[in-house]
Amino acid sequence: MKNCLFCKNRGFEVFYNLKSFPIYFGAIPKKDNYKIKKFPLQVSYCKKCNLVQQTKRVKESILNKVYSSKYYNCPSPKKSGMGKREVHKFWNFFRSIKQKKGKSLEIASFDGYLMGLMKNIGWNVYGCDPANESKNAQRKFGKKIKTVFYRAGVYKKKEFDLIIFRNLFEHIYDYQKFLNNVSYSLKEGGHIFIDVPNIKEIIKAGSFGVFFHQHISYFSKNTITSILSSYGFKVLKIFEGNPNLFIYAQKNSIKNKPVKKNKDNIFLKKNIKKSDYTKKKIIRIFKNQKNRRIVLFGMSALATSIVNFIPKKLKKKIILLSDNDMTKHDKLLCGFNMKISNPKELLSLKYDKLLICSYFFKKEIVSSLKNFIKDQKKIVFI
Ligand SMILES: [Zn+2]
Q1: Beta-strand (E) ranges in the chain?
Q2: Domain residues of the chain, as ranges?
Q3: DSSP of 335-346, one letter per residue?
Q4: In this predicted structure, what is the pLDDT of residue 70?
C-alpha cells in the first residue's frame, strides 16, 4: 500500500482487486501483443479524504512509455464518433459559461477536435500532447501543437488566459507538481476547464472492467474540489455528468487549504461489493448451457477485463470479437489471441449471445448494429 495521493494518509479500504491486468487494453497489433506485461491492479479509497485511487501503482516511467507508443490509441472522436458525445457534452458545459476570448492551451489535445471547435468561435488555440494522434492535429494547427509532455518550461510564464485538460488529471501521479505547472502557465485570475471520471457513475454502472492502470485516481465532486482548492484554484462551477465530471475553476493565490471532511465514504462503503456482483453476472452468462457461442462486442477495458478474468474453459465459448472502429480490425484484443472482426461478420455467423462490452455507450452501439443483427434478443448487456 502506498500513501494517499492527496492527503498522504496510509489507511485504505480496497474495493477492486485483480491479480494481473495488462498494462494496455483494447486492440493491439499482433506483433506487439507479446510485449504487453501484466501487473496487479488494485483500487481503494482513502479512509481520511475518501479519494478513490490505485494502491498498487505501476511506475510512472512505464506508463509514459505506453502513452508515447504507436499502439496507444484512445478512441479518437474524429475517427470513431464514440468519444464525440462526451466532447460535445463538455462543449455544452464550456459554452454555458460566458468568457472573454483569448489565448488558450489544451494539455493532451490529442487529435485537436476540441481545439477546432474553440478556434471556430474565436479562441487563439494552442495544444500540447506527445501522443501519436498529435501528428494529425499538427497538419491542421502546425506549430501551435507541441508533441511533448506538458511541463511549466514548455511555455512562458503567465502565457494563457485559459487552460483545458480533459481525460488527463486522472493520469497524474503528483497533483501538486502538475497544478503548480498549470498555475505557472496561467495568467493571474485565469481559468481552467477540466474533465475527469466521476467515480459515483462508474460504480453505479457496474464497477467492474472500468478500472485500468492508466487511471491513477477517480474523483467525486467533493474530492476534486478539495484537491483544486488545496493547490490554488477556486472551483466556480461543477457539472456531475455520466461518466465524467466537468469543472470550471479560477486561479487564485490561496494555497495549502486543509483537507475538508466529506461523506463520500457512505456511498463507497455501500457499493464496496458491486464489482464482485458484476463479475458473478458475467460468469453466469458464460456458464449458462444455452450460451455455447458468445460474441464480445466493443473492444474496451471491460472486454479486456472479461478475457483476462474468466476461466479458460469458459473463454472457449467466445467465437468472435468485434468492434465498429475500423482501425481495430485484424488486431488482437490485449491478452487474448483472437483477431477483432468487422461487425458484418455477424450476418453469416451462428451465435447464441452478443455481449455489449460497454456501460456508457449502450444505445449508440445497439443502433450502430441494427443492420448486422437479425435477432435483437441475442443482445445482452452487463
Ligand atoms: Zn487521502
Answers
A1: 12-22, 27-28, 38-46, 52-54, 103-107, 124-128, 145-146, 160-166, 186-197, 217-218, 233-240, 244-251, 294-297, 318-322, 332-333, 336-341, 353-356, 379-381
A2: 77-253, 274-381
A3: TEEEEEE-GGGG
A4: 66
Cα 109 to middle of ligand 1, angstroms:
29
Q: Angle, to 10 degrees, between the axis of helix 175-185 and the axis of helix 221-230? A: 60
Contacts of residue 280, defined as CB under 8 A and 6 or more positions apart, other chains included, come to: none
Distance CA 16, CA 38 (A): 16
pLDDT-derived band at 76, boundaries 50, 70, 90: low
Q: Is 96 exposed, middle or buried (0-12, 13-18, 19+ CB in 10 A)?
A: exposed
Q: Residue 25 is placed in which grid cell?
A: 487494453
Percent of the chain residues topping a pLDDT of 90: 76
> What's the CA-to-centroid distance between 83 and ligand 1, angstroms?
31
CATH pick for 274-381 out of 3.40.1360.10, 3.40.50.80, 3.40.50.1000, 3.40.50.720 = 3.40.50.720
CATH of domain 77-253: 3.40.50.150
Tell me the mean pLDDT in the region 174-183. Answer: 96
Domains 77-253 and 274-381 share a fold: yes
Which residues have a beta carbon within 5 Å of ligand 1, which is an ion?
4, 6-7, 9, 46, 48-49, 51
Ligand 1 centroid from CA 244, angstroms: 21
Cα-to-centroid distance, 1 and ligand 1 (Å) = 13
- The predicted pLDDT at position 83 comes to 65
- pLDDT, residue 5, reads 96
Residue 129, pLDDT > 80, answer: yes
